[in-house]
Structures are given as C-alpha cells and as structure tokens.
Specification:
The protein is of the alpha/beta class. Helices cover 35% and strands 12% of the residues.
Length: 397
C-alpha cells in the first residue's frame, strides 16, 4: 500500500458508507446529461412500432421487441419488472437511426429486465472484455491495491492476444450489442488496443470503453472515434487537487484534463458528426466530492457527468459476511472475459474463484449456459448465496 493509501490519506478517512446493498443496475448517484425531448423520442418509437417492416424476422427477437415496446409505450402500473427510459438510455436512443431501434431495444430490454425476471437465452446481454489486467493507477477503491492480485508472480497480470480478441468479437457479433472494453485494468495500457478498436468498427451498437484518460494520445483518440463507439467513459472522481490524486493514486488531474481536452478538440475538428457519447464518471467515495465542481470543470468537455455509488471493491475476499441473500443481478446481465480468455461471472471476484471456463474454446453460449454458471445462478436464486465464496461477502444485487 502506498503512503497515499494509508491512514494519512483524507480521502480514506472521509470514506462514505457503502450501504447494505449495491444496486448494480442504474448505480448512478448523480447524473447530468443534455436535455432531450422525451416526447420526440417516444414519437419516434411509436412510428417505429407501427411499421410492420421494423419487426425482426426471428420470432424470439420479435417477441422481446414487442415486450419492450409495450413497456415503453403502454407503461404497466403497479409493482413488477419493467423497462424504462432512464436518462442514459434516452440519450443512447436519441442518437440512433430508427432502423437501429430493433437491435438496440432487443439488447437493452434483456439487459434491464432479464435480471429481474431471471430469464436467459443463448448469449449474455453484455460482454465485458479486458484488453489488459494491468493499470498505471492504484485507486484507493480498486482491487489494483491488492498486491496478491498485481504481483507478477500471481499470474493475474497480462494483455489479451489480438487473435483471441478477434475470436470473441466474431462470436459475439450479431448476438450481443453491448461490448465493453474495461474491467480489472486500464485498456489504454494494451499496445494492441488500436487494432482491437479497428476490429470492432461497425459491429456493435452499444460498444463502450472505460479509461482513466491519462495515456490518451492523438493516435488513440482517432482510433476510438474512428471505431464509432457508443460511449467513452473517462474515469475521474474530483475536480481539484489534492483530492484527485489522493483517490487516483499515481494520477495527475492536470494531465487527465489535458488528455480529455485533446479528445474533445479532435472530435470537434475531425468528427463533427460523431454520435459517440462522452462521459466523465467518478466513484462517489468521499463527502469531499462535489457534483457542482465536477460539472463546472468537465461539463464543457464531455456530454455527460456522473457519479456512481461506492462499493468496496478493494478486497472482497477479506470483507466480513454481508448477510445479503438476494441474488446478484449480473448473473443474468453480463459475462466478463479476462485477458487470458478466462470467463468470470463478475469482477468483484477479481481473482477468478468463480471462473466458468475459458473463452475461445467452445463458444460464448457454452460458457453463458455452462453447468458452473447455472449452479451459481441456482444458488443465488434459491437463497443460498451465503454458501458461495466470495458472494457471501459481496453486497452487489
């Protein structure tokens, strides 16, 4: 642990409570986005729903789309699972062409509702792929602070081979719309990232990358924008020093601000029609953080500013038993694939005790519906979460 992460760090002294449960879906504690005409998007959805040619030929996709449209256009009353237009979803829909609605709604409905109804099909609604597990930061709220994870001799550190990445993309294309480049490490550390981005071009409606922005170069900015990713998330938690570098150890707010400004300027000059959404998002870890100051600093450089709720990711394995018996929603929402192909149900289990196999061998459906995955889901759904390590120490629901 660095000196900044010890007891002398005010960011750690002032740590906000993690609460009794971490709602993984819609985990924003604060969110600012451009004002959008909700009525205009709903009108577009109504026109889309009324056009027979807009319905997919595949019966299963047609049925899911019908459910999504009913929820949006004829909102159900009372309790129960439902599909809603949250601000980030509204912004994503607003930037799509009408003919893309069917693909997007099929993905988004499954992403939001299936964890509530505990439904599954052949593919995860979201595939989260890490180009590398390495990171140049040691953020105080991150498992990168665990030397048993970052130590080279432990075998967790590495970078994904381009051919494995391409195989994953090939398997996911046409079945998965949400592919996120991020997980345990910083994607821009990977030297193959530009080639990975090029291979993604035009294949996913909801492709996203999360980056601390410190290593962005002109080449990387162009590579990201040429790919046409749906969302680029710049991870930053403060609008002033010393708080920024106390939270993001090894980081410099001045450098990150310079890199985000570079991205903004390149997009404005070279990609004026880009529909990529940019967001600065921080972890709400300290009461010293302010949404007002974040918006003042970052608001003119990005489309959205947000905070997500704090969950103690630092070391799940050493936390006390949580007493949480509700199932983890991510078991029905997303699958993680590490740099070495290892597939994992979540990244809170960053040491892969729950790994369900390796990607690149039998296809994504074989992993997503594997016996190991199904046993884990059954334990959670059956109220036996307390029997699973490290799930019994985690608060994600």
């Amino acid at each position: 642990m660095s000196a900044q992460q010890g007891k002398g760090n005010p960011a750690r002294k002032d740590r906000v409570s993690a609460g009794t449960a971490y709602q993984k879906h819609q985990s924003f504690s604060a969110f600012q986005s451009p004002a959008r005409d909700l009525g205009g998007v709903v009108a577009r959805l109504r026109r889309f729903a009324a056009a027979p040619e807009s319905r997919p030929a595949d019966a299963y996709r047609r049925a899911i789309l019908g459910r999504a449209l009913r929820d949006l256009l004829e909102p159900p009353t009372g309790e129960g699972p439902r599909f809603e237009l949250h601000p980030n979803v509204l912004e994503e829909l607003a930037r799509l062409e009408d003919q893309e609605f069917a693909r997007y709604l099929f993905y988004r409905y499954r992403y939001e509702v299936f964890p509530q109804t505990r439904e599954l099909d052949a593919y995860p609604p979201c595939l989260q792929v890490e180009p590398t597990s390495s990171c140049n930061y040691r953020c105080v709220f991150c498992y990168q602070t665990d030397s048993e994870f970052t130590g080279r001799q432990q075998g967790h550190m590495g970078t994904m081979a381009l051919d494995l990445f391409q195989k994953l993309v090939d398997e996911a294309q046409g079945h998965v719309e949400a592919l996120t480049l991020a997980s345990r490490g910083e994607p821009t550390v990977a030297k193959e990232l530009p080639a990975m981005l090029r291979y993604l071009t035009g294949k996913f409606l909801a492709a996203k990358i999360n980056t601390n922005a410190s290593l962005l170069t002109e080449k990387l900015c162009h590579a990201i924008l040429e790919t046409g990713l749906q969302t680029v998330v710049f991870s930053a938690d403060a609008a002033a020093e010393p708080l920024y570098s106390e939270l993001r150890v090894n980081g410099s707010l001045e450098r990150v601000l310079e890199r985000v400004r570079l991205f903004h300027d390149i997009r404005a000059k070279h990609y004026p029609k880009s529909r990529t959404i940019t967001r600065v998002s921080g972890v709400q870890v300290s009461s010293s953080q302010s949404m007002e100051s974040m918006t003042e600093l970052w608001g003119d450089l990005v489309d959205q500013v947000a905070f997500v709720k704090y969950n103690p990711w630092e070391n799940t394995y050493e936390r006390p038993l949580s007493g949480e018996d509700r199932p983890c929603s991510d078991l029905w929402r997303r699958m993680f694939v590490w740099w070495d192909g290892r597939a994992n149900p979540c990244d809170v289990d960053y040491k892969s005790l729950l790994s369900v196999g390796r990607a690149g061998t039998g296809g994504l459906p074989a992993l997503w519906r594997s016996e190991a995955y199904e046993k884990l889901r059954s334990a959670h759904a059956g109220g036996r979460r307390a029997e699973v390590h490290p799930c019994q120490r985690c608060t994600v629901v």
